[in-house]
Amino acid sequence: MLALWPRVAAAVDVVSPLDFSSRKACLASLDYAERHLGNPADPEHDERAFLQVLERVCASPMLNADDKLRAGLLLEQAQKNRVGAAAASFDFVTLDGEAHSLNDYHSQFTLIYFNDPDCDACQRVKARLDTCSVIEHMVHNGGLTVIAVYTLDDEKAWRSATYPAYMVNGWNKSQSIDNDELYVLPSMPLFYLLDVDKKVVLKNEPSLNVVLETLQQAR
Q1: Who contacts 117 (Cβ-Cβ below 8 Å, separation ≥6)?
Q2: How far apart are CA 85 and CA 184, in angstroms?
Q3: Which of 19, 82, 100, 136 is the S-S candidate for 25 at Cβ 3.0 to 4.6 Å?
Q4: What is the DSSP string of 51-109?
Q5: How far, in Å, CA of 113 to CA of 22, rounded?
Q6: Hey, which residues does 150 pair with through a beta bridge?
Q7: Segments making up each domain of the chain, as ranges
Q8: What's the CATH superfamily of 91-218?
Q9: Angle between helices 23-32 and 47-59 (to 10 degrees)
Q10: How many Cβ atoms are within 10 Å of 21's Cβ, its own excluded?
Q11: Mean pLDDT score, 154-158
Q12: Thioredoxin domain: from which residue to which, for each copy (predicted)?
């Protein structure tokens, strides 16, 4: 696994000050974690720290079973494709009608770009990707595969969208990502960065800057 875990220390720093000493404190910590650590749009977003808080809350003797229902659901979702674990494979088709799966690709890194062509934030990120020399260089050198994935059911919207030539343009036509809850995507766009073994390096990452920083550390 790539030694790229600057967020591990950050996760400890975020979680340590939180209070789990009483029922009220546990529920307040859960609320904070859900609003900030588990929210990709929040500057404090940190998947690893979010997972730690959920585990603490679910294990707390201060809470009863009803108190833990919400945390249990969030924990189940957060454990999907967690950092360091193998990412769930999924099927998709490309514009030529060919069927593919995530596991068909074997680059040193795979970058999944979950997006919606009608999303304004997605358009802004795609505009940056259009001129991103770092990513394009890694793709051309064989060290990176970038897969743009559309998960909704509007084939016309998918076909009308354009992406940089270095990207694989995929549509999860079967809707397995949503229907089987293979990935929990609370917002768009989101990146997943995977290593050569398809283990998750970055999860639900909204920031292209973080993706670039991580890739540059790996070069």
Answers
A1: 123, 150, 157, 158, 160, 161
A2: 15
A3: 19
A4: HHHHHHHHH-TTS-TTTTHHHHHHHHHHTTT-TTSBPPP-EEE-TT--EEEGGG--SSE
A5: 40
A6: 171
A7: 6-78, 91-218
A8: Glutaredoxin (3.40.30.10)
A9: 160
A10: 10
A11: 97
A12: 81-219
DSSP 36: I
Convert the pLDDT of each residue in 100-144 to its tens digit.
Answer: 999 999 999 999 999 999 999 999 999 999 999 999 999 999 999
How do beta strands 91-93 and 109-114 pair? unpaired
The pair of structure tokens assigned to 162 is: 């354009």
Pairing status of strand 200-205 against strand 109-114: unpaired
Q: Which two tokens stand for residue 63?
A: 């809470």
Question: Considering the entire predicted model, what is its pTM?
Answer: 0.90
Residues 6+ apart with CB under 8 A from 218: 2, 4, 108, 109
Kindly tell me the number of DSSP H helices and DSSP E strands found in the chain: 9, 7
For 37-81, the pLDDT digits (tens) are 999 989 999 988 999 999 999 999 999 999 999 999 999 999 999
How far apart CA 82 and CA 69 sit, in angstroms, is 20
